[in-house]
Amino acid sequence: MLETTSVGSFPKPDYLVKARADLQKGTLSRPELVRLEEQATREWIRFQEDIGIDILVHGEMERGDMAAFFAERLDGYGISGLVRSYGNRYYRKPIIESTLVRPRPLTVEWHRWVQSLTSRPVKGMLTGPYTMCDWSFDEHYGSRREAVLALAAIVRDEARDLEAAGARYIQIDEPAISTRPDEIDLAIEAMAVVTDGLAATTISHICYGDFATIYPHILSLPVDVLDLEFANSQFANLEIFRRPKFTKIVALGVVDVHSHVIETKDQIKQGIRRALDVFDPELMWIDPDCGLKTRTPQQAKDKMKVMVEAVREIKQEMNLN
Questions:
Q1: Distance from the CA of 116 to the CA of which of 17, 124, 178, 243 falls in 20 to 30 A?
Q2: What is the CB neighbour count within 10 angstroms for residue 226?
Q3: Which 3 state secondary structure label does DSSP give 40?
């Protein structure tokens, strides 16, 4: 009960940010970059072990954008020029140019290596087919459904390879679901392709949308765990999930990843207590609202530490240890 985890990404240390820039300038070799990505990954694994996280993430030190990382490794994808996201933030958007093919497993080797660093389970981390499509330009399939299902077959194969490599937890992130509630049936159809036959515990992270428009329909998403944000809304969205009864495991976001302010233990405990009035404790995990990559490394560590301490005290109060 009340197992602790994280959504996926951690901030990259300064030496890795510099190294990635140096690679683009041609002043650093890719093997040297990989060495530093491995160093940063080891540091985040060690940190999670030290504070007592139950289900670990590898931190995504080898990844940039969660869609582009996969698009760059699939045949049939290209990458656009810079596209404005918001404010002064820009990114390169994937372009589906031809039939999509996965030439080889994309994450399995890295996951197997990370899992060898710890005896605790580490999640396999994938971007879901609906989000991959929604965050791409499609110049080939012409139909969103056709593109989404083509991506679903690729993500399914990757998930199966992760499971064969020993992954006990596989997360298929679908943040775009909450922004297009009119297409939730398509997202559900695609996820059914991905998770069909998997024995691993499956998780999907859905963040910062209008949950009222997609609940209870998201309970039909064929995964074991729905990872949702609550801290950013000051837990006001809890009432949405009171009726009908939530029937899956919920990973409860209890720290706001978009704020530099470090929550207090009492704030987190109060949020968990409010959630326990809606969700069953045996069907609750505790984690941040979303990935922590936008925080500084110290902020991310401080938020994770206070989260674990708050959960430990709640479990003591409930005699769950």
A1: 17
A2: 21
A3: helix
User: Taking the mean position of all CA atoms in its chain, how far away is CA 210?
Assistant: 18
What per-residue confidence (pLDDT) applies to 292? 95
306 alpha carbon, distance to own chain's centre: 20
Q: How many domains does the chain have?
A: 1
Residue 43: the pLDDT is 98
244-284 per-position pLDDT tens digit: 999 999 999 999 999 999 999 999 999 999 999 999 999 99
Distance CA 291, CA 208 (A): 12
What is the spatial distance between Cα 303 and Cα 281, in angstroms, rounded to a whole number? 22
131 has pLDDT over 70? yes
Q: Give the residue carrying structure tokens 């009492």.
A: 266
- Classify residue 177 by its DSSP letter: G
Residue 255: inside a domain, yes or no? yes
Which is it for strands 225-229 and 249-253: parallel, antiparallel or unpaired? Answer: parallel
- 26 by DSSP, 3-state: which? coil
User: Rounded to an integer, what distance in angstroms lies between the CA atom of residue 58 and that of residue 111?
Assistant: 8
d(CA 279, CA 295): 29
Mean pLDDT of 59-82: 91
CA distances from 40 to 35, 47, 62, 194, 295 (A): 9, 11, 9, 30, 16
Cα(244)–Cα(97) distance, rounded to whole angstroms? 43
The pLDDT, as a whole number, for residue 319 is 85
Domain extent, residue 307, equals 3-12+52-64+108-317
Task: Provide the 3-class DSSP secondary structure of residue 214.
Answer: helix
Which letter does DSSP use for residue 59 in this model?
A: B
| Residue 200: φ, ψ to 5° | -65, 155
233 is a domain residue = yes
Residue 130 lies in a domain: yes
| Beta bridge partner(s), residue 86 | 89
CATH of the domain at 250: 3.20.20.210
- The burial of 297, by beta-carbon neighbours within 10 Å (0-12 exposed, 13-18 middle, 19 or more buried), is given as middle
In a domain, 293, yes or no: yes
